[in-house]
Design a protein that fits this description.
Number of helices of chain A: 4
Shape of chain A: globular
CATH class of chain A: Alpha Beta
Number of strands of chain B: 12
InterPro entries (chain B): ExoRNase_PH_dom1, ExoRNase_PH_dom2, ExoRNase_PH_dom2_sf, Exosome_comp_Rrp42_subfam, PNPase/RNase_PH_dom_sf, Ribosomal_Su5_D2-typ_SF, Rrp43
Radius of gyration of chain B: 21 Å
Order of helices and strands of chain B: HHEEEEHEEHEEEEHEEH
Keywords (chain B): Cytoplasm, Exosome, Nucleus, RNA-binding, rRNA processing
Largest sheet of chain B: 6 strands, mixed
Strand content of chain B: 25-35%
CATH architecture of chain B: 2-Layer Sandwich
Pfam family, one (chain B): RNase_PH
Shape of chain B: elongated
Number of domains of chain A: 1
Organism (chain B): Neolamprologus brichardi (Fairy cichlid)
CATH architecture of chain A: 2-Layer Sandwich
CATH topology of chain B: Ribosomal Protein S5, domain 2
Helix content of chain B: 25-40%
Order of helices and strands of chain A: EEEEEHEHEEHEEH
Oligomer: heterodimer
Family (chain B): Belongs to the RNase PH family.
Largest sheet of chain A: 5 strands, antiparallel
Helix content of chain A: 25-40%
């Protein structure tokens, strides 16, 4: 939520819980400050013949907003999450199967797309689906006076001049997905990418800690 | 023989051409030793303004085989409560079954909706919505922009942005005055004014093939074989308005920089072309 001066990045408090739903094959809930998203994964399961792909699994993502029916905005978020997951999942291990990922927005207080990505990754891990790398989402906002704010709240997003969300992978810290709004210069883009890569380290460390804690308890 | 190979193994067919071409590039250009970038080159663009006579503004754009037609209808409405001094623009991208066999009749699919959301995010910088306001809090213009694809051969985002820019340049809105006694709007269809384009936004799309080769302006076939897509939208001040990469394989910083510089050159070419066509249409009227 705070200002980035010389690459000291601070994110809001985040929390995560896995395996909270009983019917799904994998589920997770991710909370960033006040933004909260719950993810559920079903799969590998049977796929409709019209949607089947002969050599890979078919991944379907559904984003359900807190109020109302999914609209055009949710479809575009679904496309971003789906293609990011397809890049990191080993889909060729489950041909002619379907994987369904459902993301339910519980509360939106800014950085929604990155919270969705984090919840999705934790749910896929919980389902035990094979992945080549983990991914995390980081949102950066550029305020009107040029400062870069990571993990902005809804109020900060509204006042910002540009808003960018990146999905960073855990293997090479490269950018898997980029979704931006507003205008910015090339230099600002590069700064935001660097800041997001730094922030992703904290998030990956958090994934590692929470999974370690969970499996140490169940022994 | 080649046609049979192309149908059976499309990936290998494309790969053989791209690898050979990149060897040639590597020999000539000693600076980029590991980079293998193939610019198939942006296809020839053919825009046509004013094709729809019943619309306030329209444009038909052909980018190679990809054809997009944009029609703009203006209506009078009350402005939204959040922004009483601004009008608004409602874009809609439609990919009907006519343009390609991959689209079925029925509600819009994910690709059309994602394209509509992309255009909605980009359009905010195109014109100043304050220009669309007639009477603060009471009356404003709403522009319904309908972009319909007539022929899908890849790279619809680029074609949509160009069509939208060209159609907005072609749009003429009638004068509206508020009658003081009746406080009803009076529309004068004879006097028309043009929309002022605030920033000329142009997008440049690329697809990433085999994690190392970038193809500019991909066709439908190249898109299906690619592992990721990237669209960069720039304006005339070299500022970026959107870097849209919906997932897929990762892209290194240098490649991204190359794409951005290519996008800025593209912006100049397209802006010149649109200005030329708009100017010739105005002269003809």
């Amino acid at each position: 939520m705070e200002v980035c001066g010389s690459l000291t990045v601070s994110l809001r408090e985040f929390g995560c819980e896995q395996s909270l739903l009983s019917r799904t094959d994998g589920s997770a809930s991710f909370v960033q400050g006040d933004t909260s998203v719950m993810a559920g994964v079903y799969g590998p399961a049977e796929v409709k013949v019209s949607k089947e792909i002969y050599d890979r699994a078919t991944l379907e993502v559904l984003v359900q907003p807190k109020v109302g029916l999914p609209s055009v905005r949710e479809r575009s978020q679904e496309q971003c999450v789906r293609e990011t997951c397809e890049a990191s999942l080993l889909l060729t291990l489950h041909p002619r199967s379907s994987l369904t990922l459902i993301l339910q927005v519980l509360h939106d207080d800014g950085s929604l797309l990155s919270c969705c990505l984090n919840a999705a990754c934790m749910a896929l891990m919980d389902a035990g689906l094979p992945m080549s790398c983990l991914f995390c989402g980081v949102t950066c906002a550029i305020s009107t006076d040029g400062q870069i704010i990571t993990d902005p709240t809804a109020a900060q997003e509204k006042e910002s001049r540009a808003l960018m969300t990146f999905a960073i992978d855990s293997a090479k810290r490269s950018v898997l997905m980029s979704s931006t709004k507003g205008s910015f210069s090339v230099h600002e883009l590069q700064q935001c990418i660097a800041v997001s890569q730094k922030a992703s380290e904290k998030i990956f460390q958090f994934y590692r800690d929470s999974v370690k804690r969970r499996y140490s308890k169940s022994l | 023989m080649a046609a049979g190979f192309k149908t059976a193994e499309p990936l290998e067919y494309h790969r053989s051409f791209l690898v050979n071409k990149s060897d040639r590039i590597q020999n000539h250009n000693t600076e980029h030793r590991e980079v293998s970038v193939t610019y198939i080159g942006f296809l020839i663009l053919f825009p046509c303004l004013g094709s729809i006579s019943t619309a306030n503004g329209s444009a038909l754009v052909k980018l190679g085989n990809t054809t997009i037609i944009c029609g703009i209808k203006a209506e009078l409405t009350n402005p939204t409560v959040e922004a009483p001094g601004k009008g608004y623009i409602v874009p809609n991208v439609d990919l009907p079954p006519l343009c390609s066999s991959r689209f079925r009749p029925g509600p819009p699919g994910e690709q059309a909706q994602a394209a509509s959301q992309f255009i909605a995010d980009v359009i905010e910088r195109l014109i100043k919505t304050e220009d669309l306001c007639i009477d603060r809090g009471k009356l404003c213009w709403v522009l319904y922009c309908d972009l319909m694809c007539l022929d899908y051969d890849g790279n619809i985002l680029d074609a949509c942005v160009i069509a939208l820019l060209a159609a907005l340049k072609n749009t003429r809105l009638p004068e509206v005055t508020i009658n003081k006694e009746t406080s009803a709007p009076e529309v004068n269809l004879e006097k028309r004014r043009e929309l002022q384009i605030h920033k000329h936004l142009v997008s440049a799309s690329f697809c990433i093939f085999d994690d190392s080769i970038l193809i500019a302006d991909p066709t439908a076939e190249e898109e299906t074989l690619s592992t990721a897509n990237l669209t960069v939208v720039t304006d005339e001040d070299d500022r970026l308005c959107s870097v849209h990469k919906p997932g897929g394989t990762s892209l290194s910083g240098e490649r991204l920089q190359e794409c951005i510089s290519r996008a800025t050159t593209r912006q100049r070419e397209i802006q010149k072309l649109i200005d030329k066509v708009a100017h010739s249409v105005k002269k003809a009227q």
